[in-house]
Amino acid sequence: MILQNSTALAAGLLTASWLAGAGGPAPAGTAAATPLTETVIESQTLDMRSTEAETLTVFTGTVVVTGTNLRITCDRLEVISLRGGEKEDSIGRQSSFKSLIATGRVRIVQGEREAACERAEVLPGEDRITLSGRPTVIDHSSNFVATGEPLILYRGDRRVHGSNVRIVLPPIKDLGFDKNQPAESPSNPPASRSEAEKPTAPGTPVPPK
Questions:
Q1: Rounded to whole angstroms, how far apart are CA atoms 26 and 12?
Q2: Among 88, 62, 89, 60, which Cα is nearest to 76's?
Q3: Alpha carbon separation from 20 to 1, 15, 104, 176 (Å, rounded)
Q4: Domain segments of the chain: what residues?
Q5: How many other CB atoms sit within 10 Å of the CB of residue 200?
Q6: DSSP-assigned beta bridge partners for residue 59
Q7: CA 102/CA 63 separation, integer angstroms
Q8: Is the pTM of this model over 0.85?
């Protein structure tokens, strides 16, 4: 089953924008944006059901989503979109995207950034993506790796929250300090006081000036 420009289009674009760290216009002088391409969803089976309020689309079996600089793979993809158009239509028009849940060997790749987990839940209304099931987020451009259970990404304010988190960063250069070496003495120790400046002991007569 191959579906183009489906209800998951908004899901793919939202996920891609998170992985790209989007949230504002590109700085001046940056390269032109990648040309937009169709979002294509491939799966072994498709089940689409509509109510008066929303449409549920479920893709199962080797699900692959490809789009503009984006690739998502998983075992099952569930997309819920709010329904528009005439209520009598069997499927109806998907007017807005409500949620996306990808489960089973989930992998999201966008450029040099990727995420892997067992479950990814995208809630655009809350601007939130929750990764669970041994999630890992990698940025190959900066050698950044983060794991936790779960990892919650708030795209609106570019914030990440997690529990049991482990983060791997690039190595820090040697600062030149060896704990086994004794501390160096000051190169210019303070000069000793002259005899005239030294304090006198109690009871010592003071010589006349």
A1: 20
A2: 60
A3: 28, 9, 23, 37
A4: 2-22+36-134
A5: 9
A6: 46, 77
A7: 9
A8: no
Q: Is 28 helix (H, G, I), strand (E, B) or coil?
A: coil
Number of Cβ within a 10 Å radius of residue 43: 20
| Sequence-separated (6 or more) residues with CB below 8 Å from residue 121 | 99, 100, 101, 129, 130, 132
Residue 201 is classified by DSSP as: P
Distances (CA, A) of 171 to 11, 15, 138, 157, 175: 35, 29, 16, 28, 12
Per-residue pLDDT tens for 144-172? 999 999 999 887 677 888 999 999 998 88
- Which amino acid is present at 34? T
Give the amino acid at 193: R
Closest C-alpha to 168, from 193, 143, 140, 190: 143
Strands 159-162 vs 45-50: parallel, antiparallel or unpaired: unpaired
Q: Which two tokens stand for residue 36?
A: 């937009």
Q: Looking up tokens 């699900």, which residue turns up?
A: 63
